[in-house]
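Hi team,

As requested, here is the filled-out complex form for the alpha-L-arabinofuranose run. I kept the field names the same as last time so the parser does not choke. Let me know if anything looks off before we queue the next batch.

— J.
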Amino acid sequence: MRTARFTLDPAFTTGEVNPRLFGSFVEHLGRCVYTGIFEPTHPTADPAGLRQDVLDLIRELGVTTLRYPGGNFVSGYRWEDSVGPAEDRPRRLDLAWRSTETNRFGLSEYIAFLKKVGPQAEPMMAVNLGTRGVAEALELQEYANHPSGTALSDLRAAHGDKDPFGIKVWCLGNEMDGPWQTGHKTAEEYGRVAAETARAMRQMDPSVELVACGSSSQSMPTFAEWEATVLAETYDLVDYISLHAYYEPQDGDLDSFLASAVDMESFIENVVATCDHVGARLKSRKKINLSFDEWNVWYTSRWHEIENSDARDWPEAPRLLEDNYSVLDAVVFGSLLIALLRHADRVTVACLAQLVNVIAPILTEPGGPAWRQTTFFPFAQASRYGRGRVLDVRVDSPTYDTKKYGETDLLHATAVRADDGTVTVFAVNRSRTEPLPLEVALSGLGLTSVAEHSVLADEDPDARNTLEEPERVTPHPAEGTSLNEGTLSAVLEPLSWNMIRLA
Ligand code: AHR
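And here is what came back:
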């Protein structure tokens, strides 16, 4: 196999990594909340009902911003059902996921949960622009953020939360372009209500950061036109436009699946172009940033079976979307993380969808253990060491042929330089059969040694962590990686995620 190469130079950088790039997502969906993070009867539960075993794993994962409460769920969300004494809260039908929502876990519990995750955990709250509108968004904002002395802020205090929640980042609805969304809208309809809501929320607090809904995927027929229309209405009022993308193999085509980040990078670049086009039309100096607030590998077919059925039995916290990820999935997932880092100049918020049980890096059993999926490891490593300035990486790599994306590089890589001068390279070898030799020229970075080369790979690409074997897959150290006279040399195992730390 020909050697893949790239050069790192401190003078050539892409952008600073915003810690919000390592966000995740807690939706009232399946068992993400109930028996995921919240299970009062679990042996490890604290007095608030939060599972300590899950909290420990969340901290280890290193998530920052946590989007809540949906997703599709938010388009039917009545925030007032989720506050006040838990025993008085109503049970409601959740049309999005055909479940019964008990509201046992609500807004106050979410904020308390974030505090326990740690100081880096920041709220990102979505308002319902599906079945509701400006008035309810304002009520929620007043309840959550106004210090005191009004009906809703005093109600919050009466409910036991004297201090305001200080929610800075707000999503103006969710996937409003999707026909599956309760209260789905055209771009014109949504652009208008998003602008009205944004204007009103800023009247209450000009410092809020607002995310307008972009397309729910690049493959939507209205993609790009939707963004342009929505931004024409909201450009001066919002800070971000959202992107959502999920990947899975189609018709068993694993080679294209492994190149999913090609689609993700083009999606990002197309949205940037659209934002800047609207900005140019408006003669604005302002730049809209990207909130990639749902991304992951997701095997959607099992959900579509339920979605297309007539069943309406409204279970509580059913097992939904509980994908169990393989090594192959984790390599694709790592490559998606690399794509986000490579665009850190404009992608300043990103949320891995989701956090626990639902297409998640952490799985739990009710009353039983919690464990790390294969995807846990790339995320935890990137969140820990992917902090600093992204260096401009342009690879010269051997290629392979994919049905969806044509000729594609076998190497996908990025590198981040921390404030202390250390550099971490994140790299994926997309070859399913061949090791990939790698050489990186590092002149001018003052690096002298390899602190760590950690690999996620397995002889069985289908290997995964399960209840029976929760530690079947973990990262292992690579052998033979060296740094001599300004050149890093390594061999990337077939189908592998790699983190190489240079000191
Ligand atoms: O993350 C699962 C679902 O995917 C979200 O609720 C929705 O926004 C998206 O379609």
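Two things worth flagging: The chain has a mean pLDDT of 97. The chain has eleven helices and 25 strands.

Thanks,
J.
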